[in-house]
Design goal:
The chain is α/β, with parallel strands linked by helices. It is 24% helix and 11% strand.
């Protein structure tokens, strides 16, 4: 999976070099590219914000740099390609091909402070991180690719493909070396999903994480201040899917922390990232038996700690009894901490024991009276 992250604080994402996400990057399961939005500004102060139309406090992120950044990372379709997002064809291009289209010309960029037409956009390549294998940046990271708006097909993996391979020319490799280790071609017509974290978006859920984990390419836009000019999302929707999502009913200083949360939630679901893939089945909110439920309490050695023993059932070796205990505790914890989730449980999925546990917790099932 490829992830592109656009931010004015690239250093925020150093955390993706450690723990499970760092391992996923090093093994090629997760290909992360972090871009500095200021590399697509045109004035000497590298300005990314301005005062809001209509007045009011705060600043709004300007559409110009965002448009240039997205055009460079996701080149607009060629004239013969449809200009709407949709299911990408599955015909692969050869590694030597490149995607059609180019970034907006210099004349379409905002004028500099003196009204003069700016020169070519500053290359974002210098701010991008190397591929997950730790080699030299690939074609997508090269200054020529960034400034022209054309991204090499070899730099954009299709579904299930790994990290971007280093450019043989930049790493001193020979054509023979290139043939021995070809880079992953971009699939024809592939477009990413743009994800914009914002307090005004819909809630981000475990189901979203699972859905995003099945996609080959995601782009995250980290807003700041009062947010990103709304026209950026409007224009992007004409050529790619766009999701505006929220982590909850609170406000952060920027989208970077939210993106870190989402990347970890998504990344841990990729095949091969977790040591035991079955562990996600018992997670809170996991599809299946745990959907709309919180995971119950967990224990490890020693069996007694500060006079507090582990529940006997967990030491019994009786797998059926242990599964029943865990289900009961999940129902009780959900009733105690997130009672609104119980409304999502389909009554037909609840057995007699489930109903008894919920009744004891004070929640009606099938019209039963609320317990006192």
């Amino acid at each position: 999976m490829r992830l592109d992250i656009v931010t004015i604080f690239p250093e925020y994402f150093a955390a993706l070099d450690i723990s499970l996400m760092g391992k996923a990057r090093r093994t090629g399961l997760l290909d992360v590219h972090v871009h500095d939005l200021r590399d697509w500004t045109t004035d000497r102060h590298r300005t990314v914000d301005d005062t809001p139309y209509g007045g009011g406090p705060g600043m709004v992120m300007k559409p110009g740099p965002w448009g240039e950044a997205l055009d460079s990372i996701i080149p607009p379709p060629a004239p013969h390609e449809p200009n709407i997002p949709g299911t990408p064809p599955q015909t692969a291009l050869s590694p030597g091909d490149s995607t059609g289209g180019s970034a907006s010309s210099a004349s379409s960029r905002e004028p500099g402070p003196q009204g003069a037409t700016p020169g070519p956009a500053t290359s974002p390549g210098a701010s991008q991180e190397p591929g997950a294998r730790g080699g030299a940046p690939g074609a997508a990271d090269s200054p020529s690719a960034a400034s022209s708006g054309s991204v090499s097909s070899a730099a954009l993996p299709g579904p299930g493909q790994g990290a971007v391979s280093p450019d043989p020319a930049s790493s001193g490799g020979s054509p023979a070396d290139d043939e021995a280790a070809p880079t992953a071609p971009r699939r024809a017509g592939t477009v990413p999903r743009l994800i914009i974290p914002t307090p005004s978006g819909r809630p981000f859920t475990q189901a979203d994480a699972a859905r995003y984990a099945a996609e080959p390419w995601l782009v995250f836009a980290c807003g700041r201040y009062e947010g990103i000019d709304s026209r950026v999302a409007e224009e992007a929707r004409t050529r790619m899917p766009v999701d505006e999502v929220s982590l909850g009913d609170f406000v952060l200083a920027g989208g970077e922390v939210a993106v870190l949360v989402m990347v970890e939630a998504i990344g841990r679901l990729l095949p091969g990232v977790l040591g035991n893939a079955d562990s996600v089945a018992d997670d809170s909110f996991a599809p299946g038996a745990m959907e709309s439920l919180l995971e119950g309490p967990v224990y490890t050695k020693p069996p007694v700690w500060r006079e507090r023993p582990v529940p006997d059932v967990l030491l019994s070796g009786h797998h059926g009894a242990i599964a029943r205990w865990r289900r009961d505790e999940a129902l009780r914890r959900t009733a105690r901490h997130r009672p609104e989730l119980l409304a999502r449980l389909a009554p037909e999925t609840l057995d007699k024991r489930d109903r008894a546990v919920l009744r004891e917790a004070g929640f009606p099932v099938d019209g039963e009276d609320m317990a006192d």
